[in-house]
Design brief:
The protein contains 10 helices and 22 strands. The chain is an alpha/beta fold.
Length: about 400
């Protein structure tokens, strides 16, 4: 009987891992199934651009996995039973259960409402393709007014900054305001913060610093201290959260629901489950938890591939790098910031800004799309067969380093 590998989610991490497992493991011994709710690959790093009006490529997953031997199941994951080793899914035909021998959990994250009243009812977000398209429709309707309209972006993380500057550049007829809980660009170096402020000034983005939104309404937000800010479209980018599915399935998770993994991305509670990307709580080489990011998805994905292939084939499990070296921020189409960070997660004094940084970011986006669209590039002539003594053990390796949340 073939070893069943089930991959939940076909985002940057899930599609990359699935393709590389298909590339390196023999189909004689293994079968790989990818479960994803949407039929196409979503470039999440570019959803703010999609919302602003740009056309974003969305390769069909059926085409991406064609010829790889990977089975694609278009369905929504509703539950994971880690004890029984099954995944419950729902689709147009009603769904069912998928059994697995190895599970790769890559369901990612979604926008976090943060318990703020009115966010679910009135705010837009760019954490998923459907919500980004809804925002686009709203911006289109505002752009059709003679007097224009006001857009309020809540949250000054990377997503908030990129969303505010992209909308301001793409739709100059709209008034864009960015609300920052603290100082704008507080995690950047002094020079990068100045560059960011200049970009906001150039694009006409109004910045409200040290402002906390307490309630979102249809045409305004209410802030701490009683201040009201008018808004025709409020975009919520004040954090991300993960699905409760892993916790409900019996996996050991953090308080926020991320799966606790060891150095090889293996669940510390269930050794036949691996987690990557935003779903995983992994400690990097600097001793700090890896942040939710595309970069973390890449590193955790590479480590999971090495661990799964190594354990299934009886080879030594190699350690990939687990590091976070910096942030790349787009400020519209022709400007950007590349900010490197040290092992202490603090910004280094120097940064790259302007068109060069924008081209660097564009290159990263192209590379991310290409590697996902070509999951089994350079197929080896000989794929690895499974170890003669069977699949991965039923208990964690003694050497596994348990992560304390």
């Amino acid at each position: 009987m073939k070893h069943r590998i089930v991959v939940l989610g076909a985002g940057y991490a899930g599609a990359y891992v699935a393709g590389n497992l298909a590339r390196r493991l023999s189909p004689v011994d293994t079968e790989i199934t990818v479960v994803n709710a949407e039929p196409d690959f979503v470039q999440r790093l570019r959803l703010h651009q999609l919302a602003a009006g740009r056309q974003i490529e969305a390769p069909q997953l059926a085409d991406v996995f064609a010829g790889t031997g990977i089975r694609l199941r278009l369905a929504r994951v509703t539950a994971v039973d880690a004890g029984r080793q099954v995944v419950a899914v729902a689709d147009a035909e009603g769904g069912g259960e998928l059994g697995y021998d190895t599970l790769l959990y890559a369901l990612g994250s979604h926008g976090d409402e943060g318990g703020v009243p009115g966010v679910a009812e009135y705010a837009f977000d760019v954490a998923a393709r459907p919500s980004a398209l809804r925002l686009r429709e709203r911006l289109d309707s505002l752009g059709g007014r003679g007097e224009g309209g006001s857009v309020l972006v809540v949250g000054d993380g990377l997503t908030g900054i990129e969303t505010a500057t992209e909308i301001a550049e793409s739709r100059p007829g709209l008034s864009v305001t960015l609300i920052a809980r603290g100082e704008l660009g507080a995690r950047l170096s002094a020079g990068a913060r100045d560059h960011l402020r200049q970009a906001c000034d150039r694009l006409g983005v109004t910045v409200l610093e040290h402002t906390v939104v307490e309630t979102v309404e249809a045409t305004r937000v209410l802030c701490a201290g009683g201040t009201a800010v008018a808004s025709d479209a409020t975009v919520w980018t004040a954090g991300f959260a993960v699905s409760p599915i892993a916790a409900a399935g019996g996996l050991e998770v953090t308080e926020s629901g991320r799966i606790v993994v060891d150095r090889t991305m293996r669940s510390v509670s269930h050794p036949n489950v691996y987690a990557v990307g935003d779903s995983a709580y992994a400690v990097g080489d600097n001793g700090r938890p890896l942040p939710m990011s595309c970069a973390s998805a890449g590193y955790t994905g590479m480590q999971a591939i090495a661990a799964i292939v190594g354990r299934l084939t009886g080879r030594k499990v190699s350690h990939a790098k687990l590091e976070y070296i910096g942030n790349h921020i787009s400020l519209g189409r022709r400007d950007g910031i590349l900010q490197m960070v040290g092992d202490d997660a603090q910004a280094k004094p120097n940064y790259m800004g302007g068109r060069k940084a924008a081209r660097f970011k564009a290159g990263i986006l192209r590379m991310s799309l290409w590697t996902t669209s070509h999951p089994t590039f350079c197929l080896p002539r000989r794929k690895h067969r499974l170890a003669a003594n069977g699949p991965i053990p039923t208990a964690p390796d003694v050497s596994a380093e348990k992560v304390v949340a």
